[in-house]
Amino acid sequence: MGAVKNYLSVAFFAFWGGLARYALTEAFSFYGTALANLLGCFLLAFLTYFFLRRTNARAWLNTGLSTGFVGAFTTFSSFNLDAFKMLAAGSSLPALLYFTGTIVAGYLCAWAGKKAADFAATKMLERG
């Protein structure tokens, strides 16, 4: 039964993650991809470390949010395609800045997500 719950959770949250990424891309075009990936770095680190600190966390919820929502929300392929399009258009420096800047910013967002999760989990544990 647990596996079925996980699959349903991933499907449910992937639907919402895909819609959220689509909305960002529609609203911000090229920048929507970068925004989705950076938010995804923060969210995945936050969810991972928050659920690790919670002893009563439900596995199906963590799987659905991380694999489903964040997995559908972020897009490594579009990130690379955007960089490739810049290179193909002869924009080497912007492509390099986009590629390396996104990776560095993604790392920083993941670090911030872990710190935020530690803070939130500690506050929740203090409350009981």
From TrEMBL:
Domain of life of the source: Bacteria
UniProt keyword Heme present: no
UniProt keyword terms in alphabetical order: Cell membrane, Ion channel, Ion transport, Membrane, Metal-binding, Sodium, Transmembrane, Transmembrane helix, Transport
Pfam families reported in the protein's UniProt record: CRCB
Signal sequence coordinates: none
Alphabetical list of InterPro entries matching this protein: FluC
Chain positions recorded as Na(+) binding sites: G71, T74
Name listed for the protein in its UniProt record: Fluoride-specific ion channel FluC
Gene name in the database record: crcB1
